[in-house]
Amino acid sequence: MKLYAIFFSPTGGTREVCLALAGGWQQPVEEIDLSDPRRDFGQITLSPEDLCVVAVPSFGGRVPPAAAQRLGQIHGEGARAILAAVYGNRAFEDTLVELEDVLKAAGFVCVAGVAAIAEHSIMRQFATGRPNETDILQLKEFARQIQAQLESGAATEPSLPGNRPYKELHTIPMVPQTLDCCNQCGTCATLCPVQAIPADAPNRTDPDRCISCMRCVQVCPQKARQAPPQAVAAISLKLEPICSQPKMNQLFL
CB atoms < 10 A from the CB of 206, how many? Predict the structure, then answer.
């Protein structure tokens, strides 16, 4: 059996969750980063003996379209999949059921689902520092429970919360700004998951391509990119009542 951690993680929180779950098996893990726009995911073929932890962030209660498209290129070939929806303390809504449908269409067999908390990628005051040490321990315990069920032969398709048809996709339209300290090093252009930043003009962003994932803000060595402060303040005020109360990780078997 080969163990894979497959994730779309622009700012790192989803990768942390994915690796924590995969770490419960205590064996080497091969990482597949869905946020790499240069990789040909159609070249990846798995087998029924393989186990995959597949984690995506919840964008407006849905799977990010870029992640869904790239997952759909992988040849699952009966590989077992543990699904993880990672969200910033608001709600994951239809993310898990949509991820399940995407993976089934790609030939995976879904055996468990997890909803996990990570620091909000835009409003960093929500779920700050998560997944924390307690979260990591709990996610590893989830992995042990899943492993026990798989080894017992009692694993069945999980009952996942969510709706079909999915909710209409509405994401926060927040294109990062470039500050005067930008030296046009091009790091953001290289690492943008959807190639919304021109390589020859990395101080610009194509608003039609940008998915507001904030990776460019996260990776800029000059700290020369930021989400529009006024928009962040307005949306933070709106989300305060529903995002301030800490939520718990959940396991679905």
Answer: 13
